[in-house]
Design a protein that fits this description.
The complex is a heterodimer of chains A (113) and B (110). With 113 residues, chain A is mainly β. Chain A has strands at residues 4-7, 10-13, 18-25, 31-37, 44-50, 53-57, 64-70, 73-79, 87-94, 103-104, 108-112. In chain A, strands 2, 4, 5, 6, 9, 10 and 11 form a seven-stranded mixed beta sheet that branches. A four-stranded antiparallel beta sheet of chain A has the order 1-3-8-7, with no helix packed on it. The relative contact order of chain A is 0.33. Chain B has 110 residues and is an all-beta fold. In chain B, 0% of the residues lie in helices and 60% in strands. Chain B contains no helices and eleven strands. Chain B has strands at 3-7, 10-14, 19-26, 30-38, 45-50, 56-59, 62-66, 70-75, 84-92, 98-100, 104-109. In chain B, a hairpin with a 6-residue loop joins β4 and β5. Chain B is globular and about 45 Å long. The relative contact order of chain B is 0.34. The chains are: A mainly beta (113), B mainly beta (110). The interface between A and B is medium-sized, with 23 and 24 residues.
Chain lengths: 113, 110
């Protein structure tokens, strides 16, 4: 595997379910990011991790819980989501959490029923 | 307010018809401007990074330029496979993060 991978690619869940999104980067980077992309809206930064430490939480509701066990893996744990949380969730990585270029994964298309 | 604005929102071209996409920004202390291409249902694909006014970068039919207030993505003799949404993003001193414009949806017809 090369670049940034995300699983699953598609997820349908009910509002009472608990699920997790997984991201893995094979680029040797130290920073990882979660973004939300809704239709006709700019990408919204959710969380930033730099050397496994969370450095940014962009006022994200607590029903989204990130986890970064090491610099190569990033998870987004989901629970009691709302239909308006349906979106494309994108993971990205960069060498460090600075102005370095960010490389994106293919995304997880989430639908909340 | 720090923001990034892209225009036009949508652009339809005939194959071979050259044009430009605009990205204007109002941030202080620009540290980098990034262009990405995004196909439907996929993640953004990195194209260019520009760091200072006057800088230019080229890749195949694409050329990106940067001034103190805006960036242009010039597309020369586009082909249908250039159809995608093009995203601009800015990293600046006070923000400490990347902020994106809303994108320009480009459609190239044969």
């Amino acid at each position: 595997e090369t670049g940034v991978t995300q699983t699953p690619r598609h997820l349908v869940m009910g509002m009472t379910n608990k699920k997790s999104l997984k991201c893995e980067q094979h680029l040797g980077h130290n920073a990882m990011y979660w973004y939300k992309q809704s239709a006709k809206k700019p990408l919204e930064l959710m969380f930033v991790y730099n050397f496994k430490e969370q450095t940014e939480n962009n006022s994200v509701p607590s029903r989204f819980s990130p986890e970064c066990p090491n610099s190569s893996h990033l998870f987004l744990h989901l629970h009691t989501l709302q239909p308006e949380d349906s979106a494309l969730y994108l993971c990205a990585s960069s060498q460090e959490a600075t102005s370095d270029t960010q490389y994106f994964g293919p995304g997880t298309r989430l639908t909340v029923l | 307010e720090d923001q990034v604005t892209q225009s036009p929102e949508a652009l339809r071209l005939q194959e071979g018809e050259s044009s430009s996409l605009n990205c204007s920004y109002t941030v202080s202390g620009l540290r980098g401007l990034f262009w990405y291409r995004q196909d439907p249902g996929k993640g953004p694909e990195f194209l260019f990074t520009l760091y200072s006014a006057g800088e230019e970068k080229e890749k195949e039919r694409l050329k990106a330029t940067l001034t103190k207030k805006e960036s242009f993505l010039h597309i020369t003799a586009p082909k249908p496979e250039d159809s995608a949404t093009y995203l601009c993003a800015v990293y600046y001193n006070q923000g400490g993060k990347l902020i994106f414009g809303q994108g320009t949806e480009l459609s190239v017809k044969p």
